[in-house]
Amino acid sequence: MIIKNKKWKNLITVTLLFTIAVLSFEIIPRFIDIIGLSVSLVEDSNKLNNIESIEENLVKTKVENKNLKLKMNKVVSDYKKDKNISDTMRNLNEIANRAKINISSINPQNLKKSDKLWLQSIELKFNSTYEQFFNFVCFLEHSQKVILLNEVNIKPKVIAKSKLDITAKIDVYLNL
Question: Which CATH superfamily is domain 79-173 in?
Answer without folding.
Answer: Ribosomal protein S6/Translation elongation factor EF1B (3.30.70.60)
